[in-house]
Amino acid sequence: MTSASLSTTQRLVIAIAVLASFVTFLDGTVATVALPAISEELGGGLTTQQWVVDAYLITLSALILLAGSVSDAYGRVFVMRIGLIGFGIASVVVGIAFDPVMLIIARAAQGAAGALLVPSSLALITATMRGEIQARGIGVWTAFTTSAQLVGPLLGGLFVDYLSWRFVFLINVLPIAVTLVLLARLQLPEHPKGARVDWLGGILCAAGLGGIVFALIEQPNLGWSAPGIWIPAVLGILLFGLFLGRQSTENSMMPLSLFRIRNFGWGNLATLFVYAALSLNGFVIGVYLQQGAGLGATAAGLASLPMTILMILISSRAGAWAGRLGARLFMTLGPLIMALGALLLLTVSADFDYWWQVLPAMIVMGLGLSLTVAPLTTAILGAIDERRSGIASAINNAVSRVAGLLVVAMLSTIVGGALDLDGFHSAAWVTAALFAVGGVVSWIGIRRPAPEADPETPRPI
Q1: What's 446's DSSP letter?
Q2: Are 103 and 43 spatial neighbours (Cβ–Cβ below 8 Å)?
């Protein structure tokens, strides 16, 4: 993207959108490598570690769709400013937390504030750019937010080893302050639509996911027969069912009719499996390499660096290849290659050696991920008319986070109660299976749309 093709306002919008979303995506992964240090200082073991991740994902996942409506109703710049301030305050509270409860509540507040940032940042891009410039702007946004997720473990490791796990969260204050300054310079007239905000739908979604996740995380401690487990589980399922029941109209937060569009529906199903596998792998690698293999936090963060490098080198090319050959091939091969990489983690033994047991798996998974991400995004958003790209992106974003939310909640069941070597191997098998299902789903469902076809004409799935 050349600077001459963008106005000063458009360059400023991209910078603001990237920075605002960067902290949200970064915090989704940066905490993983800090989990052993957090539980060592505050206590709580694996359950606390799960809640540190899932408290953030519950509110982020449940409210990100609602936040799109709030942005339309009250103005994107105003909503983004509120989200930035809220995220900054919550980050400080996380950084000074003195017990697990305070930390978990503050993480939930971070997720709620972060939900205001992602849709409003994308909306700023779509509101100020059109055509090829808009596509490139979204491409820059996607590249930086994906990088944030991949470099998070390394950044977290450096802070844990050389400062404190608390600085992992306090560092957010700096980019937030910069973004607020840039936002003040943005002279962008806004005309809030006064759109109806489905507050009840947002509450149902958050409460439903919260009940389900609470039951999944706490059931290893109490058992499914305990009223404190099965009652929240049943209520969570009922409330989430009520939320889905409210989404049958075109003006809802998550129009279910979009899922009748073949590539959108099947693409989001593939997203569910692929991102569940990525979340499980990221959590297990970040924690086991420290607690099981005895590596420092920085070394554990560096473990995933090959994936980042391969994403930088290959991802944009994969997007171009998918444009010529279609997304189906890459959305099938990519997850299957990642499944092979996950199986290579079965070579990890008590006599640990990163270079021969982990690095090959990271390289193979990085190659598969690089072939998957851009074609997946292209297939899903390319199936939807650009006028509805905002809600389509928000739905796909929510699906990926719900996938991570649920798989982390089920972690204790997956690893057999403890993240020891046997638990690590169990997680590798499940990760490989999830990746493989994602590839099979893509092969079955994804099609290359005909050039003359109306991209928003529902096709049978």
Answers
A1: -
A2: no
The pLDDT value given to residue 461: 44
At residue 4, does pLDDT exceed 70? no
DSSP 303: T
DSSP state of 347: G
**Continuous H helices in 223-304:** 227-245, 262-291, 297-302
Cα dihedral 240, 243, 245, 246 in deg (nearest 10)? 180
Whole-number pLDDT of residue 72: 66
Domain boundary among 196, 214, 229: 196
> Which one, of 271, 52, 18, 57, lies nearest residue 156 by Cα?
52
State how far the Cα of 20 lies from the Cα of 116, in Å rounded to an integer. 10
- Sign of dihedral through CA atoms 93, 94, 98, 102? positive
Look at residue 143 in the predicted model and tell me its pLDDT: 66
235 and 205 inside one domain: yes
Structure tokens at 294: 């005895």
Helix, strand, coil % in the chain, rounded to nearest 5: 80, 0, 20
| Amino acid symbol at 143 | A
Residues 57 and 183 in one domain: yes
Tell me which residue range forms the domain holding 347: 257-461
Q: CA-CA distance, 414 to 431, in Å (whole number)? A: 10
Q: Which residue has the tokens 């942005």?
A: 71
The letter for the amino acid at 346 is L
**Is residue 253 within 8 Å of 65, Cβ to Cβ?**
yes
Interval 372-392: pLDDT, tens: 887 887 788 777 775 566 667
Residue with tokens 């905000």: 197
What is the CATH classification number for the domain harbouring 382? 1.20.1250.20
pLDDT in tens, 217-257: 778 777 778 888 889 889 989 998 888 888 776 567 777 87
